[in-house]
Design goal:
By secondary structure, this protein is an all-beta fold. Strand 26 (about 335-340) and strand 27 form a beta hairpin.
Length: about 625
């Protein structure tokens, strides 16, 4: 009987049963398809030795007029401008106090209580203290005069922080007649809170059982940002809009747009900020509108309101006959979820609809048209722009826009959406990897409150892939030569360069595998016996490892009926010089699995690409 060649259809299909998907792949992790064949994805290394604080939610790259490459990085606590491996904290200052803070210490404790009338801080905020004097003992001026993170807010007029020294009995002073403080903007949360009520605000806010409105301080912290020339605009979703002037240097913080010299009626709240394409208007989505008299901005954010500045002018926002500033309110939906620049238009999603915004010039400046009502966006970062159009994720499916909306046929829809933490959908981050014609989404599985899985679509080959990888945001290659992504553990985060090799910079990529659906042995009627297996695997890896030492596991599983549990019949190591594997496997159906041998150090520095494995199958009776 001739050898049975195992060539499976590209892509992962989890919509059918294991048996109905015969001839296809059913599951995978850290594997992609290229030219129809599965291979291990590229590895990653840390972009530098320095880290950032908390969880990153946004990355933006740009170049100044001198050619310096910058990376904007927004986290739950901070906003950084990264140059090389240097992280400059440009988080805006919310408020300052002069000669207004006094301190109290307790003998044997490093916790300091600060008193500052109506300070406005929340737990987790950062404050920089200056001008303080020694408390008389271990809590010296040098201990007090630095940046601290607030660890509790007992009252509206007090907060505590943990000093770098422990107080002794001599620490009884108040730090002089009063110290100065600079409070950074309030921090947000690492998780999304779906509604108001108990637990929807920071610890200690309000009275017991009180209801809390959703604000930028008690919600998932998401940043939007864009460069205005060589300068930077940033916005914490639901909070203020800020401007960083590159010419002032990295040691200077971003300032509120309204504090710029010449600022006129600038929005003070927004859900997202963007600079339009060639016409260069600054656009705020979900801004606070002008009052009835048009003389000031309201204090409340309108989640469906769009405002834009005068052309080439970040400071002028008052609509006048002599400029192109203006505004528009959308009607379909209840809130703007996100917006993205596309080819000659800006696409805007509400929770239920998609709009197209195009520049038309005076007197209207922009034309806003409803494209579709009924398809929204699952989260503010769940859309990506690619050479093949815009792709995004809705609450129940995947879509693309190339002038018209099309739903993407997806072979893993049920797998993704049946195990998706819908409450944490605002953490979903869409990514594009142009070098491999891929778009994808990092998302939280049903049991997780942080992104721990991904789903990827190859838009050239129309195949889907799935896997497990913890990444909170992504930036494709462009200004920088490799894609960049972020991961944080215990509020310490790193930027990683992806597609840099075959493994990560710590160890081998673990749990790399691809597994087929059930396939019949012979015709599937009688029992068959597999006496040998001939692998077809291309190994690539580090020269010092040597091709002969790179090892994969080949696993054969068998069963006799679709409803029967799979039994592992063979697990054998395979190298580039393995010609055949002798085996004794008997059954009606079989499954092929290729996986990295995680217990073998030879797997470090190794990648693989699968071809057409063959098996020698012989009849073995009916029972």
């Amino acid at each position: 009987m001739p050898l049975q060649k195992l060539i499976f259809r590209p892509g992962i299909n989890k919509e059918a049963t294991d048996y109905a998907n015969e001839g296809g792949w059913f599951n995978s992790n850290l594997v992609r398809f290229r030219k129809g064949l599965p291979e291990k994805i590229g590895g990653w290394v840390k972009a530098g030795s320095n880290s950032f604080q908390s969880t990153a939610r946004a990355l933006h790259a740009w170049v100044d007029l001198a050619g310096t490459k910058y990376l904007g990085l927004g986290t739950t606590w901070k906003y950084y401008v990264v140059e090389g491996d240097v992280y400059s904290d440009i988080t805006p200052i919310r408020a300052t106090t002069t000669n207004g803070i006094v301190f109290a210490a307790t003998n044997g404790s490093s916790t300091i209580t600060a008193t500052d009338s109506d300070h406005g801080a929340v737990t987790g905020d950062f404050v920089t203290i200056s001008g303080a004097a020694s408390l008389g003992g271990n809590i010296t001026a040098g201990v007090l005069n630095k940046e601290y993170q607030i660890n509790s807010v007992p009252t509206l007029n007090t907060f505590t922080f943990v000093a770098t020294a422990t107080a002794n009995a001599s620490d009884s002073g108040n730090g002089g007649s009063g110290a100065d403080a600079a409070y950074q903007i309030n921090v947000g949360l690492d998780v999304y809170v779906p509604s108001t009520g108990w637990g929807a605000d920071y610890w200690g806010a309000g009275t017991f059982g009180s209801v809390s409105a959703l604000t930028a301080t008690n919600q998932l912290r998401i940043w939007s940002h864009d460069n205005f020339g060589e300068d930077l605009l940033i916005n914490a979703r639901g909070a203020g809009v800020f401007y960083w002037d590159e010419s002032n240097g990295s040691n200077n913080r971003a300032v509120a747009l309204s504090d710029l010299s010449g600022a006129n009626l600038t929005p003070t709240l927004a859900l997202q900020v963007m600079v339009s394409d060639i016409d260069r208007h600054v656009i705020c989505f979900g801004a606070n509108p002008l009052n009835a008299g048009g003389t000031a901005r309201t204090e409340a954010l309108d989640p469906m309101f769009i405002a834009w500045s005068d052309q080439e002018n970040v400071e002028e926002w008052e609509p006048l006959p002599t400029n192109t500033a203006g505004s528009f309110r959308l009607s379909a939906g209840s809130a703007i979820v996100g917006a993205i620049r596309s080819r000659q238009e800006t696409l805007i999603w509400t929770d239920t609809s998609l709009y197209s915004m195009t520049f038309v010039g005076q007197p209207f400046t922009f034309s806003v048209n409803l494209v579709n009502e009924g398809v929204g966006l699952v989260g503010p970062n769940a859309m990506v722009n690619t050479p093949k159009g815009v792709f995004w994720m809705d609450k129940k499916g995947f879509y693309t826009y190339t002038g018209q909306i099309q739903e993407l046929p997806c072979s893993v829809t049920e797998y993704v959406f049946s195990d998706l933490n819908q409450i944490q959908s605002y953490q979903i981050f869409g990514f594009v990897n142009k070098a491999f014609d891929e778009v994808g989404w990092f998302y939280c599985s049903a049991s997780s409150t942080f992104p721990d899985r991904y789903v990827t679509y190859n838009y050239e080959e129309n195949v889907w892939m799935i896997g497990e990888l913890s990444r909170t945001c992504w930036l494709d290659e462009g200004i920088f030569s490799e894609p960049k992504a972020t991961e944080s553990i215990n509020d310490v985060g790193y930027i990683y360069n992806h597609e840099t090799g075959v493994d990560n910079d710590d160890a081998a990529m673990t749990n790399v595998f691809i597994e087929s659906s059930d396939f019949d042995l012979g015709e599937g009627d009688d029992f068959q016996s597999i006496s040998r297996l001939i692998p077809d695997i291309k190994f690539n890896g580090d020269a010092d490892t040597g091709a002969d030492g790179q090892t994969l596991d080949i696993v054969l599983k068998r069963r006799n009926f679709p409803g029967e549990s799979l039994t592992t019949a063979l697990t054998t190591a395979c190298t580039s010089v393995t010609t055949k594997v002798n085996t004794r496997v008997r059954g009606r159906q079989a499954v092929l699995r290729i996986q990295s041998n995680d217990t073998d150090t030879s797997a470090v520095g190794m990648s693989f690409r699968l071809g057409a494995t063959r098996i020698d199958v012989q009849p073995d009776g009916k029972r």
